[in-house]
Amino acid sequence: MAIRLRSTFETVVQRDRAFIRRRTDGASVAALEPIEVTLLGYAESALSPANARLAVEAELGPRGLIALSRVLNRLQPLLEDGREEDGLRTLMHRRGLLPHPPSGMRQLPGPKILHWMVTAVCPRRCAYCYAEPRHGNRADDSMLSRERLQILLAEAAELGASGILFSGSEAFLRPDLPEIIGDARRQGLETLTTTKHPISRALAERLAAAGLPCLSLSVDTLDPALSRRLIGSAAYPGQVARSVESLTAAGLRFAIQAVLTPETAQYVYELAEFAERRRAAALQLVPFERVRRPIRRINQAAMQVDGTTAKQVTEKLQRQHPSLKVTLFRKGGAEACDDLHCDIGGTKLFFTPEGRTHRCYKLTDDAGLYGLDLRTHSIAAAWHDSIFNGGLVPATKDYAGTPCSGCGNFGGCNASGRCIYQAQVDHGAYAAPDRDCDRGRAALEARQSSPPLAPL
Questions:
Q1: What is the pTM for the complete model shown?
Q2: Which of 122, 200, 336, 450 is deepest in the core (most CB within 10 A)?
Q3: pLDDT on residue 89
Q4: Cα 279 vs. chain centroid, distance in angstroms?
């Protein structure tokens, strides 16, 4: 069968530019270049995908086949099998369609991943925490209602989202989080969250009822003394054992995520033995990264491990525990965005406890980085907001006087998603070299502006 737009969407032309628009609310969810209109018209009018490829190759050559594959992949959530006598096929014959300017809509019709910071509150005092949490035990700032979230989750799934990350501070301070996870699962979304919250038998059973297949537990060490120094609690390792018992009894799997420092590296072998013995789904090591405002006075340089060491520890653990999946956290996040330094705006839409979209989950105190409010705006409106999108691709002039000025890879850093948080931590400004940049590392080493702090 050929392809067509799903019935909930339609093609429109506004000011000689083509768009795909949602019928229910008139929201534009994709901008079509003239060549894309032509390619989709072929795909719609052909009797089969094979015939569409033959027609495109005859008209446009091998490059046309590549372009056809790209546009079908980009717009896949909006398409379905079938034939239609008007729409894209009719639009392809319209003359004079204009290309869209660079500042137009995002390429994808919607985010692949939602990232909701459920609350900024946490009862823990982890030395390595980047979230700068407000200490407490109630998520009184989590103002998005479950009913509104249900609408947003359904829309995100319609536009092609595959998952949602529930983060914090401590996400499980929100009492109805298990039920919200269930709402996401019913939309076909993968649900991801990592927690230090105690998992009781009752909570585990609610998570099982929600359809959660696995829960990630944040555990850096099983040594009480080190746990006290790292997170302020010597009792936490015992809590972890009880949480695992509750999850196992409810039929849920668990994974462990551990922050890797030179000190925790000495204890991670015991943690791996525990994970394998309790049949954990995985153990993921997350190398410590510098944070902007540590909760406690720490020597951040002394807590860092180099990439080679982190890789060697990971490989050694995997050899010693072949039945346990041991991985090293990769910057950029999920598999869909491994090539990105920052996936927000590329494949991810991040929003705060009250529902405001934001540029960075580590810089939520900066109101200048806010986008639209999801309490009153749709996912499509927030995703394609031109003002917010403009901040994702800064101009070269904004970086005058920095090592980025005149750099031949400036556009590449824009395309891969600039990590403005690391720029702020390392250089004191957003308009500074991206992380892993050789120029940036050289400038940082030359400056040496941070005085040493007392060891943890």
A1: 0.90
A2: 122
A3: 57
A4: 27
